[in-house]
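Continuing the series of single-chain predictions for the mutant panel. This is the parent chain; the variants come on the following pages.
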Amino acid sequence: MKQSVKNTGLFPRNFFYRTSAMNMNWVLKKGSLLLWCLTIILGLFSIQFAHAQQIDILIKGGHVIDPKNEIDSRMDVAIADGKILRVAENIPDGEAGRVVDATGFYVTPGLIDMHTHLFYGTKEVGFRGFEITNSYGSVQPDAFSFRTGVTTMVDAGSSGWRDFHTFRKQTVENSRTRVLAFLSIAGHGMLGSVHAQYVQDMDPEATAFIISQNRDVLVGIKKHHYRGPDFRPVERAVEAGKLADVPVMVDFGGHDPPLSLEKLLMEKLRPGDILTHTHFGSSQRQGAIDENGSLRPFILEAQERGIIFDVGHGAGGFQWDQVIPGSQQGFWPNTISTDLYRLSMNAGMKDLSNVMSKFLTLGMSLQDVIERTTWKPAQVIKREELGHLSEGAEADVTVFKLREGEFGFLDARGNRVNGNRKLEAELTIRAGRVVWDLNGISAPAWEGDF
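Parent structure:
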């Protein structure tokens, strides 16, 4: 019920109306002031809370090399909730749940190995070849990644459009390692050598469709092991690459006499496409270095037009008689990778840190070696959220020891080059969790009797 106040004549007729309005204005003014004060207090509290946010892991005193962010100095790295929280000098360790003393070590983004074979399985394929597809020739990612500082592995064409779904369920979704992949232009991937000759099964539309349905994993297309006298597999791979807007990686060669490397690099491939096994030459594959030890004149021109030269060491794709003359004539690969599979891991290649050490031995700077295994491959596969230590990035971090002494490094032909520096992965962190700790530097010391 609506009520009114009776005017007794003691007050002006509009007294109560004016008084109520004044009280309301007072309340509004006071309320606004109170709200403003509360906002300031909450803001200050938020700033203080952010500053005092709990650090899960603090890596202190290491020499940080982060090419994307142009960091090359002694700094601390703070990790919280699986992300990079801060990279700065002298972060207070009182804020940290766990402190890692990285004095004397190098701290880098987690490594990206851009050429691996991970479709491990127990299928007896029954075809001659590398037994890469769902068989024993491939390796389990987690068994070989973290111990060498690798947090992201890119499978190079082990599966094709016909069997990628098996690879995804079997390998990608059951690995702590981040697994990405190039999809083979051959429908059955690397099931057998015969399948790499079956051009009719190299379907650009089907390949591009599978990529469009799996962009969270698939980053490109792989052409490999074709022995014919023509460029049809390359052309089909590039067509699929255009449809899917992804780069193409080419394992070139196999015909005697060899096809023209110049035609491949200058006419067939696009800027951003990749030649792997860069430092390899044979009677069936023209190398970057000719028979006289000279760098072919079109190699640097191809690199300048945007062709990516990837190492892809493997069991047969890395020769000192190609690498050394090339480096002496100013030719260096854009990316350093292993071509990790059953045969290469126990031969001259061994692992990514060993391949990186070979380039240190040849005179490449440590900063350039790190860039070619972190930020550069991230750019090549168009995953620029990877390969750096920016605040907010997923906390994939590697801590290296640079050992000094006498070391021998093998190429894929069994020839040795001696060096005096070798990288060794001391600690690997994947998404904010310690997944490899060689000497327990992230763990508390035992305080009991010993």
